[in-house]
Amino acid sequence: MKNNSKIIRAHNYTWEGVGRKQYKTDGTAFRDIERFSLLGEGEGELELNCQTRYFEVQPGGYSSLEYHRHPHTVVIIRGSGSMVLGDEVHELNMHDVVYVSPETLHQFHADRGEPLGFLCVVDRYRDKPTVPDPDQAESMLRGTPAEKKARL
Fold it and tell me: Any idea which residues carry the catalytic annotation?
């Protein structure tokens, strides 16, 4: 069996040989976010059952408000911000770890005037996210993220 082990060197939140990608190719319910596919999509990485990705949200940006059947883990490695998780808004700081369980509404916000960067680990084979329609999102959130944050 071929040894596909490797180290991908990082510098200033970029990685050798790993290009920035669009966050998503369709939809407009997100702003100022990019991703790097670090492991699990490259040559010789099919042995991995997961994908490790880095997302970076620029100040004022946010990911899409979505849910899906697969779980994932997130580790904040740059900056701070907040996130919608279920029907609550939580502050996020460097080195916080998040578990997003299946069918849980979630969204990341870089709302503290600095980039928010996080590693995300997901199963290689997973379902596509569902973006709720506005009525469904309202009922799931029971208020807007700003209103929820104001209650914290």
Answer: 120
